[in-house]
């Protein structure tokens, strides 16, 4: 699940997104795998046995960060993006350790395409092989999850389902756990 706008109410400044105590306590379960930074920071549950994409065995309850070796390149691109977006009002750059997020929700519509151009230019100039992905379509066509839009606004989406706000996300997750418990 995404954090900002899904588990936490979406805000103009992503650094100010926070989990409510109710959601925070709910998410503190041990039997799920947690993945952050668009799947690049993974902590396996204590009940999961898995292997990494490189074939190495990942022990139960341990972390796997496939982008660890690229941290220097990620930091370099982060700093370049900070400089490159400095003149675009409303654009913000967030260093998520294993990836960089460029937010344009506060950028005027006529400047949003420029944000994308700047990101593409910085990545090409870096020569580090880093690639841009778009957060809103991360699951589309990948057979690895279900897209659920969390928004009070009725809008066009790639998501299969929708919930209105983080409170409804918590209710939905509780119902999933109850349904699973009934199956056992």
Major sheet characteristics: 3 strands, antiparallel
Strands side by side in the biggest sheet: 1-2-5
As residue ranges, the low-confidence spans are 55-60
Quote the beta fraction.
Answer: 5-15%
- What is the CA-CA span between the terminal residues? 24 Å
Q: Give the CA-based shape.
A: globular
Number of strands: 9
Output mean pLDDT: 77
Instruction: Provide the gyration radius in Å.
Output: 18 Å
Quaternary assembly:
single chain
Please give the share of residues in helix: 25-40%
Instruction: Give the SSE string.
Output: HEEEEEHEEHEEH
**Helical segment count:** 4
Structural class: alpha+beta
Keywords: Hydrolase
Cofactor: a divalent metal cation
Pfam families: Trehalose_PPase
Catalytic activity: alpha,alpha-trehalose 6-phosphate + H2O = alpha,alpha-trehalose + phosphate
